Amino acid sequence: MELYQLKTFVAVAQEGNLSRAAERLFLSQPAVSAQIKALEEELGLALFLRTPRGMEPTPAGLQLRERAEATLKSAEDFLHQAQAVSGRLSGPFRLGHNTDPEYLRIFRVAQEVHQEHPGIELELFKANSGEIRPDLETGRLDAGYIYGPSPHPSVQVELLTLPRLVLTLPAAWSEECCTLPLAEVAAQGWLWTPPTCPFHQTIAAFLEDCGVVPNRVLAVDDEDMIATLLRANKGASFLREDRALDMVSRGEARIWQGRSLTIPVHLAYLARRAGDPLIRAVRACVRRAWDLPAEPR
User: Fold this and answer.
1) Which tens digit of pLDDT belongs to each residue from 115-124?
2) How far apart are CA 124 and CA 146, in angstroms?
3) How many domains, the chain?
4) Over the stretch 214-245, which tens digit does the pLDDT of each residue have?
5) Which of 14, 68, 65, 89 is nearest to 276 (CA)?
6) Are strands 155-161 and 143-147 parallel, antiparallel or unpaired?
7) Which residues in 160-188 are b (16+ Cβ under 10 Å) and which e?
8) pLDDT above 70 as % of the chain
9) Do the beta carbons of residue 80 and residue 277 sit within 8 Å?
């Protein structure tokens, strides 16, 4: 039995689907299926039931999944300890970004990682804040940038900055709209965000506090799409202030003169991996990129 077989078994159990597991493992679907079959033959057990809904673990599969996850974690810990002892860190580090890389200073982070730890291969993935926990739990990401608070106690976060959010209006709307009461602005058309988006929680609480029910035009969970729809005069929306000011400078938007909001930007990673040498190394690089003080040893 090989560790890669256990990794495949765990991926299929977590995803419940061969194609998603194959995508996560960067393998073909037939290769994943063959590995599962070989493992089942070696163990003399059926680990999954093939159903129209996907791959469902058998009772034996459910029992062995927890042991397999623990075995993989032990192997990972062994590797990290060896790297710490040798003083040389190496291997891939999957970092998720939830907004434009320039704002997150990712290029500076990459430079810091390359200079300090040339053996670490930084891999960047687009990732939504609302999906950070499953992305971390399944191993798709080692860490990621998110808006808002930690979604769960298993996810540890580190505050990087606290940007302002300003209500941004289409440029085609009259200048008078910038000073109208919030209720009148919201009645003209609002680009909403789905409940899984951290912006939604912050903005919904603000509107409820103001007693305002917006005229929802579209629900969008992508900042670039919101900016595109603003340019197309589809409705108003809260944007990060730096993005809104850039649009204003280009004549693409206006800013409402009422109250602004704030939302934290965090680096998130699994709490159980806080002592992982790779996590600690990249966290230190991120802190330097954001000009934050180094953590005490």
Assistant:
1) 999 999 999 9
2) 14
3) 3
4) 999 999 988 999 999 999 999 999 999 999 99
5) 89
6) unpaired
7) beebebbbbbbbebeeebeebebeebbeb
8) 97
9) yes
State if pTM tops 0.70: yes
Q: Is 124 exposed, middle or buried (0-12, 13-18, 19+ CB in 10 A)?
A: middle
| Residue 269 lies in domain | 88-156+265-289
Q: SS3 for 28? A: coil
Per-residue pLDDT tens for 2-14? 888 898 988 899 8
Domain membership flag for residue 217: yes
Q: Kindly list the distances between the CA atom of residue 221 and the CA atoms of 129, 185, 237, 247, 288, in Å, as whole numbers in the listed order.
A: 10, 21, 11, 19, 30
Given a contact cutoff of 8 angstroms between Cβ atoms, the answer to whether 271 and 185 are in contact is: no
User: Which of residues 81, 98, 128 is at a domain's end?
Assistant: 81
Question: How many residues are recorded in the chain?
Answer: 297
Specify the CATH number for the domain of residue 278. 3.40.190.10
